[in-house]
Structures are given as C-alpha cells and as structure tokens.
Design a protein that fits this description.
- The protein has 783 residues and is mostly beta strands.
- Among the domains are: 45-146, Sandwich (Immunoglobulin-like), CATH 2.60.40; 219-328, Immunoglobulin-like, CATH 2.60.40; 344-442, 3-Layer(bab) Sandwich (Phage tail protein beta-alpha-beta fold); 445-515, 2-Layer Sandwich (Ribosomal Protein S8, Chain: A, domain 1), CATH 3.30.1370.120; 630-779, no CATH class.
- Helix content is 14%, strand content 46%.
- It has ten helices and 44 strands.
- Strand 34 and strand 35 form a beta hairpin.
- Helix 5 runs antiparallel to helix 7.
- The radius of gyration is 54 Å and the shape is elongated.
- The termini are far apart.
C-alpha cells in the first residue's frame, strides 16, 4: 500500500523496511529547513562588519559589510552642523560587537552603528562637511569621503583611475540627501578584503604617528574645562607668546570663530571636542587648519544666550564663555514677537513620497536635531499620508514647522523633551476645553477680602481704575463679575473682594502703578531789552526893543531859556512894552517871535542879536537836545511740579479801572503780571515734554480820552520736547521804531543857506526785544 504525503510530495510504501521510511523522513525535514532559511535570508539582513581604509589624496573610505547583497544603495542623508553622514538599512540587524569605530583621520572622526526594531542606522561623524560618494559592490557598501571641505579642489587626475576612488567631478553636491539610486547603477570595482582594515584594528590605525615639531608659530594643545560658576574655558597652548588671534561671532549667533594667524595646527589636534557633558554653554569645539592659519569653531547649545571674552597670558590663550540669563524686557519682547525664531541645526533633505510619520521621526531624531525628544504622534495623524520635500540649509525646527503646516498639523511641547503632534483641529479643541475648564474653575473659586495700603496714589483713583462702577453691560477690566472694590479715604486704603486669581492680578497692578511721581524743576527767564535814541534841533527868530539901562551900556548877547530869570544889567530880548522894576524884569515880560520852532526840552540854547532896525533888535535863538537810553528787564520765575501735573506761578500787580453801568460806577481790576504755567511729562528716555504758557504784562501809557492806563501784553503758549537740563528759547519779539519829522516855515525854509533857520528837525529811534528761555531739570530721587 502506497500513500502520498501532500506536505512533502513523497510517496510512502508501508510494505518496505522501516529504515527506508526513516531516510525519506530525514530528507523531508532537511528540505523544509533549507526552504525556511532561504525565506529568512530574503526578508532579513545583517550588518556584520565595520571597517575603513585610507585612499590617496587624504581620502577615507568607510566599508560596511552585510550578510547579503542589497537590491539598491541604502537611503541616506547628511547634516552640516554637526557634520554627519547617516545611512539607514531597513530590515537589518546588527551582528557585530564593535559598534563604535574611532578613525580620526582626514575629515572622519568616528563611525557609529545603532540598531532599532526594524533597521540599523550607521552615523559617520565628520570634522567638517566634505564631499562624499556611496557605492555598492556585492554585499559591501563603500562610502568615500574627501579630506577637503565642501567647495574644495576636485580629485586629482592620478586618483581618477584608482578602482576605489569614488569621488566624482560632482562631489561638491554629493553630500546632499538623495533618493536611493536604481538597482542598475554602475558600481566601482570590487575591493579585495585584504585591503580593508579590520574592525579590531581601527583604534590602532587611528593613533597619530609621530610628526616633527613645527619650527614656526604653532598650537601645541587644546583643552576644555568647566569652572565653578558653570562657564566653559577653552585653553589653547601656543608657541608664540605674541600670537595674533582674531575672535568674532560666526555666521550663526551660536557660533564663535577663532583664527590663529600664521599658526600651524598638528594633525593630532585636527579634531572635534564634544563637551556636551560638561554642562556649559558650549556644545563642541572644532579645530582645523585653513591655509596658513589655524582655525577654531566653537558651537553653543541651542537657544542659549552667552557672553564671551578672551585673553592671552604668556603661551596660554584662554576663551571664557558664560551663560547670560534672559532679561525680563527681552523675554517680553520675545513673547510679543509674531515671527518665530529658529535656532536649530541646518539640514538638507530630498525625499519623494515619504510617509509623514517617517519624516517626523527623522526630523526629531538625535542625529538630526542634536537633542533627545520623546515624541507622541496621535492616531489623528494618518499613517498613510505622504509628502515630497526638498530642503537645503534649513534649520530642523523650521523644517518641522513647514511639514506640520503642510499637513494641517501642530505640536505642543511639554517639559523639556516631550512633544505631542496632532491635527490643528484636535489641539485647538483641546485648548478650548482647557480654557473653558479654567474659566469654570475661576467662577467657582471662593471670594476673599484683601486690604491694600496705598502709598503714593489716591485710593479713590485706583478704585475707579479697577472697577468701572457702571451698568452690568459695562466692561470691568480688572475685577470679576463677583468682585467689588471700595476705599477708605482717611487711611488711603483699598478694600478688594474677589477670587484669589483676580486678587493676585490686582496686587501686581497696584505694585506697578503705586510709585512716587517723578518731579521736574522748571526755570524760566524773561529778558526785555530796550534801546532808545532821540535828537532834536529847534530855532526861534524874532525882534525886541533895545532898552537903555541908563548907565551907557548897549546891546548884550546872551542865551535865554523860557522861564529863566534875567539878572541885573542884562539885556532881555523883549518887546517894547516890557518895564523893569529894580534889578529884575517884570513878570509881564513877553517874547516877540516871528518864527517859533522851539525844542520841547532843550539841553542847551544860544541867543544872538543879529541885526538892528531902528530901536528894535533882530534876535535868533538856537536850541538842541539829544537823548540816549538803554534798559534791560530780567525776570526769572521757577517752579517745581510732579510729572504730568500742572503748576503755575504769578508775580505782578492788579491795575484798577472804573466802569459805568446801569448799576452805577464800579471799580474792576486787570492783571499786569509775570506768569509761568507748565505741565511736564517725563518720557522713558528721560526727556521732557512741556505744555507752556508764559505771560509778561506791564502797565502802559495813559489813554488821553479816558484817563485809564493801557496794558502792554506779552504771552507765548507752546509745547516743546527738551532734553534733561537743556535750555531752549521758546520765542522772542524784536520791535524797532523810527520817527523822523521836520517842522518848517513855507518858502523861507527852502531858501539856500538861511533855510535851516526856519526848520525844526526831530529824530527818534527805539529798539525793543523780548526773549523767553526755559530750562527743565529732572529731580533725582535719593538712593
């Protein structure tokens, strides 16, 4: 009897001996095991070895050996700061005990492999970003890294024929993240295993070889320390005690660039110092040569504010970096800023149809962000959503916001390193629920009573500010619907009843505004300068009788002013009707003039007898007067007042005048005063805005028709902005009067030579100037 086994396809003959049956059973089991191993090999791979080798031209080749060949080059990307190359191997496990290989040669510092649930990630840490190329040969992945910085010289012609040279003419752009190349790509020639440095020899190969000491200026040691106050000290040993060093902030605010001019950096110091564990503002220190100089790039932690200063003592150059706390004003300005400030590391991405969850996990990974985040992505984020992006030199936190905005997502950060990602609608609804819950909690809080002593302000004014006291529809700004505010005028105390949260806000408000008012001293000077000049020339021409006094005297010349007496034996130019009594002329003596153009108040006069007609004499009298005057009036009112409070000072007199009405005659008064009225306002930058009214009135001339006195009024009203202690001229009035007049006798005044005897000339000139000066001074409070 024969039976067919449907699982193995073997026909069994139960009539044959048992050993034949056992043999067939063994073959079936072996076949099943082989099929199972083949299926596992096709679905899962292993990374079995990390290695590296040196290439001509200061190039380093990193070799990754897998258990099975890949269908295509692994996905990869790079970051500029820190300089890294990252390769991902999906469905791969790590089958080696050596997971960190220190190379410290060329531009490569270290190769590190990390295993997760579904992949292996290989991170190549670089000293600085350099051109690289990735190729696959069988089950090996070769990463060739140039020793020059990005944008350096291309590969030498002698290296192009090297079968292991992977650097192409486009190596300057090869560091950018690209999609995996197709499986049909051309790969380099196979590298014999003998040429690869084994993993356990990596540390030996990384040891620097002995090199000759430099003969010129050089750096011999770079060290980092942390002092007691948490500051980071970078100590650089130099051979030249007069080394020229320039230190400046880098292109990013978090970088400091230090250049040691014409100094040699030994190859064993061409490296990066990762000082994150020192808990200082410094994250890393990169030392590298560039041309004839030795350079150092100091990178700070993200978001840290710092100050730095450097000094050289002998052969030690020390850079001290301290963390600077955020000032309250700067913090408030940051809260009011509408545009976010991104400080993350710059990254480059180029992906097509990448899942949104994968993109988010990649951005928030430590290799990209430089920080360790705990990420929670809710179920509202569709796992099947995909997006394509191409970003170059974009901060990773900005790239995260761009991706979230593109998919209508948002994030919330809890604590230091927990981020929740959800849809905007869900997060907004959650925020709304929290606000509603907080509002309900506030409405259920118990009412408390607080007595607040007011020091400088008036309790009544603060009560009106806190509580409008209007209708129910009127908004109450600082008091809840259940709260109330009253005050005691005698003790200047506020009595507030409200919940604890509102009471806290009210106390903070009162502490901010219940402060002493600043005071201002205002000095004003009113200057009135007056200059007058008057000149007058007059003439009298007439006749008089020649009197014989009886003792033989004849005509006598002499001067005469009106009202003067005539001495004995003198001759007066009087008319014939005049008589003498004793030695003096009678009081009824009269002067007889043909032309009478006298000077009003002559300073001097000269009388002449210029001819005789019979018994009559022709007489001429000349009179002249000149007046010069200078006057200056200075008034200096001063007043002290509080900020934004009006002050006034008045000095002068009140002039009475009479008015007549139906009720009879009344006496009223008009002010003729010097007045200063000012309202100052102190600006935050200690300047002063003043509303000014300056008045300088005085009593003027008498009005002939009424007999009352006029009032000369001078006033200026203005607003000015003045620095503290600065004197400003508010304004001025300059007045000049000129008066030239001639009184003459017609016809005779036009005669040549003698015409001036028939004229009177008057010249008057007056100048008057008013200037007003103001000087405000802020009174400083005692410390």
């Amino acid at each position: 009897m024969k039976t067919l086994d449907y699982f193995t396809g073997v026909s069994w003959d139960w009539n044959k001996p048992p050993r034949r049956l056992l043999f067939n059973l063994f073959l079936s089991t072996l076949l099943l095991l082989l099929l199972n191993q083949t299926s596992q090999a096709q679905s899962y791979n292993r990374l079995e070895r990390l290695g590296h080798s040196s290439l001509p031209g200061n190039k380093i080749q990193v070799v990754l050996e897998l258990a099975s060949p890949l269908n295509a080059a692994p996905p990869h990307f790079s970051t500029d700061n820190p300089a890294r190359i990252v390769l991902d191997f999906p469905n791969t496990s790590l089958n080696t005990t050596e997971r960190n290989v220190n190379i410290s040669a060329g531009a490569v510092q270290q190769v590190r492999a990390v295993e997760t649930e579904d992949r292996v990630r290989v991170v190549i840490n670089l000293l600085r970003m350099s051109p690289f190329d990735i190729q696959q040969v069988g089950n090996k992945i070769f990463v060739a890294i140039d020793g020059t910085a990005m944008g350096g010289s291309s590969t030498a012609a002698g290296d192009r024929n090297d079968p292991v040279s992977m650097v192409t003419q486009q190596a300057a752009a090869a560091h950018r993240p690209t999609m995996p190349p197709p499986a049909t790509q051309t790969v380099a020639a196979y590298i014999p295993p003998a040429e690869l440095a084994p993993v356990f020899e990596a540390s030996t190969a990384a040891e620097p070889l002995a090199e000759p000491l430099p003969t010129g200026p050089a750096i011999t040691q770079v060290d980092f320390r942390r002092n007691d106050d948490g500051a980071g000290w970078i100590i650089v040993e130099v051979t030249n005690p007069n080394q020229i060093v320039s230190i400046n902030r880098g292109r990013r605010d978090r970088d400091i660039e230090v250049v040691f001019q014409n100094a040699v950096l030994p190859s064993h110091l061409d490296r990066r110092l990762d000082v994150t564990d020192f808990a200082t503002p410094v994250n890393s220190v990169d030392a590298y040569p560039q041309g004839k100089d030795a350079r150092m790039l100091v990178t700070m932690r993200e978001g840290v504010r710092y100050d730095y200063f450097a000094n050289q003592t002998g052969r030690q150059y020390i850079i001290k970096i301290n963390e600077r706390p955020v000032e309250p004003e700067e913090e408030s300005r940051g809260l009011r800023s509408k545009d976010p400030v991104y400080t993350g590391r710059n990254v480059n991405f180029n992906f097509q149809d990448i899942q949104i969850r994968s993109a988010l996990n990649l951005l928030l990974s430590p290799e990209v962000s430089g920080e360790v985040f705990n990420v929670v992505i809710t179920d509202n984020v569709n796992q099947g959503d995909k997006l394509s992006l191409r970003l170059q030199n974009v901060p990773w936190d900005q790239a995260l916001d761009i991706i979230l905005e593109a998919k209508s997502l948002a994030k919330r950060k809890f604590g230091q390193n927990v981020i929740i990602i959800d849809t905007k609608r869900s997060l907004d609804a959650r925020d709304k629920e929290e606000l509603q819950a907080q509002k309900e909690i506030k409405e259920l809080e118990p009412i408390r009573t607080q007595y607040i002593q007011i020091n400088y302000a008036k309790a009544e004014d603060l009560a009106n500010l806190l509580y409008s006291g209007g209708t129910a529809d009127q908004a109450q700004r600082f008091v809840s619907d259940r709260g109330s505010v009253s005050f005691d005028e005698r003790t200047n105390t506020l009595i507030v009843q409200d919940t604890e949260s509102y009471l806290t806000d009210i106390r903070q408000l009162i502490e901010a505004i219940d402060t002493p008012s600043r005071q201002v001293l205002i000095e004003s000077r009113v200057v009135i300068a007056e200059d007058t000049f008057a000149k007058e020339l007059g003439v009298k021409f007439g006749h008089s009788l020649n009197q014989d006094l009886g003792h033989g005297h004849g005509i006598v010349m002499g001067g005469k002013l009106e009202g003067d007496t005539v001495y004995s034996e003198g001759t007066a130019f009087t008319s014939g009707g005049n008589t003498f009594s004793g030695d003096y002329l009678n009081s009824n003596s009269q002067e007889n003039f043909i032309v009478r153009l006298p000077v009003g108040d002559p300073a001097g006069a000269l009388g002449l007898a210029i001819g005789k007609v019979g018994s009559y004499l022709l007489q001429l009298e000349l009179a002249a007067s000149q007046t010069d005057g200078t006057a200056e009036v200075l008034a200096t009112p001063k007043v002290i007042t509080a900020n934004q409070h009006k002050a006034s000072i008045i000095q002068g007199q009140r002039i009475p005048y009479r008015t007549v009405s139906d009720q009879g005659a009344q006496t009223q008064f008009e002010n003729a005063v010097l007045q200063l009225e000012v309202t100052p306002q102190i600006t935050p930058d200690d300047r002063i805005i003043m509303d000014l009214l300056v008045t300088s009135d005085e009593m003027g001339q008498q009005i002939l028709t009424t007999g009352e006195r006029a009032i000369n009024k001078r006033e200026i009203a203005t607003q000015v902005l003045v620095d503290n202690g600065e004197t400003v001229v508010l304004g001025g009035v300059y007045q000049q009067n000129r008066n030239n007049s001639v009184t003459r006798v017609p016809f005779f005044s036009d005669l040549p030579l003698v015409g001036n005897l028939f004229k009177r000339t008057q010249k008057e000139t007056s100048r008057r100037e008013l200037l007003i000066f103001v000087t405000p001074k802020i009174i400083r409070e005692r410390s």
